């Protein structure tokens, strides 16, 4: 029984994880971390699911890690527990994750959105790393993923001043994949997830792995990795089917395996 999230299957092969702590603007406590990463891992292993959407509420995707839970902790508490290390489990999810972000995505909320593969933002979305205003720094990847996504200039600005950026600025900076009207956000995110889930499952996992490799390695290693993975797609049923369908001018029937 989950307390901080709900999990649904609103479309064929698409799962939806909704953060559900509205009174705390979906602040991410330890329980939320365990429930989100646990649900994502379970869905990752489910052959009936091809993509996962993660969303919050119209007011807040998530307003950060739970400040009230963190406030009384000492250095040895957070060091011994390796506070936030549990979020790494989300990076191990191999199926595409789509973040549907409306309202505040601050601190851990921004970092959680950045752990996803596609970030679809409502016009109302506000992104920021305001940890500095609390006397701390980002701890769920903000200083690293934000810098890789938007570059040093903007990452420094957000991490040092704590200011927020709106959806337009975030899209211009390269953080956001698409901006959509707030009232269609969930539909657009579910549509994108359904499109992805309709593709070859091995190919989507390989594409995700290849794009992510660009963040981890140099260009020549990345190009070699991409080429070898590309070669390996020729061992799948879906490569035969996808290319045959193109030649025969019909829709492909991927087996997703
Ligand atoms: N943790 C715990 N509770 C939070 C929270 C958070 N991150 N953000 C909001 N809440 C709670 C508020 O305490 C309040 O609860 P009460 O009614 O019980 O007081 C409720 O949510 C509503 O919040 P506000 O009354 O503050 O709403 P607002 O509309 O006036 O302001 C806001 C909205 C600007 C987002 C403001 O809530 C805010 O600044 N929140 C904190 C943002 C922040 O600093 N996030 C970073 C956290 S640290 C972090 O994330 C570390 C990391 O790297 C992982």
UniProtKB/TrEMBL annotation:
PROSITE patterns in UniProt: ENOYL_COA_HYDRATASE
GO MF: 3-hydroxyacyl-CoA dehydratase activity
InterPro entries membership: ClpP/crotonase-like_dom_sf (IPR029045), Enoyl-CoA_hyd/isom_CS (IPR018376), Enoyl-CoA_hydra/iso (IPR001753), Enoyl-CoA_hydra_C (IPR014748)
Gene3D superfamilies, sorted: 2-enoyl-CoA Hydratase, Chain A, domain 1, Lyase 2-enoyl-coa Hydratase, Chain A, domain 2
The keyword Lipid metabolism is assigned to this record: yes
Alphabetical GO biological process terms: fatty acid beta-oxidation
Keyword set includes Lipid metabolism: yes
EC number: 4.2.1.17
UniProtKB keywords: Fatty acid metabolism, Lipid metabolism, Lyase
Catalytic activity: a (3S)-3-hydroxyacyl-CoA = a (2E)-enoyl-CoA + H2O; a 4-saturated-(3S)-3-hydroxyacyl-CoA = a (3E)-enoyl-CoA + H2O
Enzyme class at the top of the EC tree: lyase
Pfam family, one: ECH_1
Annotated PANTHER family: ENOYL-COA HYDRATASE, MITOCHONDRIAL, ENOYL-COA HYDRATASE-RELATED
Family assignment from sequence similarity: Belongs to the enoyl-CoA hydratase/isomerase family.
Job of this protein: Could possibly oxidize fatty acids using specific components.
Protein's name according to its UniProt entry: Probable enoyl-CoA hydratase echA8
Organism whose genome encodes this protein: Amycolatopsis suaedae
């Amino acid at each position: 029984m989950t307390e901080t999230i709900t999990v649904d299957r609103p479309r064929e092969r698409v799962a939806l994880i909704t953060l559900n702590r509205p009174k705390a603007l979906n602040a991410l406590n330890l329980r939320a971390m365990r429930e989100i990463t646990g649900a994502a891992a379970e869905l990752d292993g489910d052959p009936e699911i091809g993509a996962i959407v993660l969303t919050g509420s119209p007011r807040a995707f998530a307003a950060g890690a739970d400040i009230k839970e963190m406030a009384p902790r000492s250095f040895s508490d957070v060091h011994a527990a390796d506070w936030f290390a549990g979020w790494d489990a989300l990076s191990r999810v191999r199926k595409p994750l789509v973040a549907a972000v409306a309202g505040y995505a601050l601190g851990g909320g921004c970092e959680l959105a950045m752990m996803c593969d596609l970030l679809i933002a409502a016009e109302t979305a506000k992104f920021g790393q305001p940890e500095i205003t609390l006397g701390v720094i980002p701890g769920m990847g903000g200083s690293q993923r934000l810098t890789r996504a938007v570059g040093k200039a903007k990452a420094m600005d957000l991490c040092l001043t704590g200011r927020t950026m709106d959806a337009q600025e975030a899209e211009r900076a390269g953080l956001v994949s698409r901006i959509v009207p707030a009232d269609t956000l969930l539909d657009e995110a579910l549509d994108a997830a359904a499109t992805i889930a309709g593709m070859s499952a091995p190919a989507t996992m390989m594409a995700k792995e290849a794009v992510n490799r660009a963040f981890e390695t140099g260009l020549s290693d990345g190009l070699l990795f991409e080429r070898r993975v590309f070669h390996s797609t020729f061992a799948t049923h879906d490569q035969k089917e996808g290319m045959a369908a193109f030649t025969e001018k019909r829709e492909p029937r991927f087996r997703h395996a």
